[in-house]
Amino acid sequence: MAWIVLVFSGLLETVWAIALDRSAGFSRPLPSLVFVGSLVASMAGLAYALRDIPVGTGYVVWVGIGAVGTALVGMLALHEPATLPRIGCLLLVVAGVVGLKIFH
């Protein structure tokens, strides 16, 4: 159960990162509220997961999911560059996260 919560919390990290960008410095109410709600839920899920998962592994997996998710949303929906080097680096992050899960 802790791993499922951790993955969901990592996905919520993507939500709050995108909402933070869309809030325009907290000048737009709806994205600002989405940011706060998803941030709190993401942190709560991380805290829950860390009861059963070592902090080093849990934190890196959480950040990795959030970072890769945010970069993918940026490339697929926000017209950020999707160059081969960027994609390659994201694959390296995924490989590291998977490795930490496997060798947990």
Automatic annotation (TrEMBL):
What is one GO cellular-component annotation here?
plasma membrane
Q: Which residues cross the membrane?
A: 33-50, 59-78, 84-103
Q: Which GO terms describe its molecular function?
A: transmembrane transporter activity
Keywords on this record? Cell membrane, Membrane, Transmembrane, Transmembrane helix, Transport
Provide the primary localization.
membrane
- Organism superkingdom: Bacteria
UniProt entry tagged with the keyword ATP-binding: no
The topology of this chain with respect to the membrane is: Multi-pass membrane protein
Give the matching SUPFAM superfamilies: Multidrug resistance efflux transporter EmrE
Q: Where in the cell is it found?
A: Cell membrane
Family assignment from sequence similarity: Belongs to the drug/metabolite transporter (DMT) superfamily. Small multidrug resistance (SMR) (TC 2.A.7.1) family.
Q: Which named protein is this?
A: Quaternary ammonium compound-resistance protein SugE
Organism for this UniProt entry: Micromonospora narathiwatensis
